[in-house]
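pasting for ref. prot 1 ->
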Amino acid sequence: MKAISMSRIWLRARQSAVSLWCDHNAIAATEFAVIVPLMLVMFFGTIEYSSGVAVDRKSSLVARTLSDLTSQSWYQNGAPVQNLTDSVMTNVFTATMAILQPYAATPAQERVSEIYVDSTKTAWIQWSRAATFAAGATQATLTTSSRSPGDNVTTLVPAALLVKQTYLILSEVSYLYQPTIGYVMAPSGVTLADSAYTRPRQFACLSYTSISSLPNFAGVTQPACPTP
């Protein structure tokens, strides 16, 4: 009887061990719980960062386009015009909305300035204009720039561009990129920014009717925008 009892106990223990070895449900559940969060981070992180890189690239293209279009001036009756107007700059800023698609233009802040480099290689703001984009709007809204005529921006300009008695068109773009999901990146978003410099194409410089372009820089009256 004792031998039989030990045999049955051993047999039951063996069956339990085999059943436990064959039951992988608990292992699968544990693996799933460990791997899924990592997979979600990788999946959403790829989406959010890929979109961020795309927006950053578009911001760079917008900066280059702004300075390029502005430096080309505009044409009237087949001839280039040296004087910029609010209407012309509204069209220039509005053109960048197409570049930002399919992303909204609302988070974008854009600014175009003309810089004068004097005989001492000191750079001054000649004029500056900014624009914003309202939700659902089909064109840009001109606003007052945070840069004013007469601001010293010498440290902002690359040394190679500080050529005496020359002019530069500076465009600056910032874009608040907010991820759709916000699973990996901060939901508050990341500000992406870029700038570009271009020399006026048709003229030595460009004037702006609605903005004073003859400020008194450091006590010295600067020359008027020269005509060809």
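and prot 2 ->
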Amino acid sequence: MTDFQWPTARPIDFATYPRRNVYKHFLTFEIPVVTRTLQFDVSALLSHAKSRKLRFSLTLGFILTRAVNHVPEMRHRIVNDQLVDYDRIIPSFTILGPDKNIYFSKGVFSDSFADDYQANVAISDRAALGNEPNLGSDNQGQIFITNNPWNSFTSLSFPYSRKIGSIPVFGIGKMYQDNGKTKAPIAMQTHHSLVDGYHVGLFLDILQRHLDEPSLIDQPFKPSVR
């Protein structure tokens, strides 16, 4: 991946940061992250992906990454005890290889589905064969996305590391049928110093709009007024 470029971080002025009191409060917690699992109707997205012969997981991964990028607070990270804002966020996928070992791939995100999808397919295929270089995770301008198509769940917890605890994590479970609809559980973990329920609500609104109208992936996106 000679053209791969990591996102760029800039320091946030803590003196004018509106969440500074809440930020400091939750930093006193041993585990300052919040995890929630929601059940989503993915019928329309699944049908859309099948009609275009798209990989469902990568298509949903694009939507998750787009939603994160369009909520500024979800681009914030804590790096070496400093609050920073990344110019963009990329997806990091967990890939199961033919040898049944898991591999990690750092995807790309430009907010253009046509470009990003093809690039991430190639990256994922290389990663599944163990041919994708391990880029590490020193740069926190990413989100972690893991797929678990073997079982559904109503709750899911993730490994926690204080060093990278401000990176949002997403887990996608096995799809199932419910009253004629295809649903899937999606779990997400966010750092409470950076993100409240309000910001999660903004994220979920973007996600839901794309699940309801999958053709939005091919269009420039503007979030609702905050």
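The first strand starts at residue 9 and ends at 11.
The mean pLDDT is 94.
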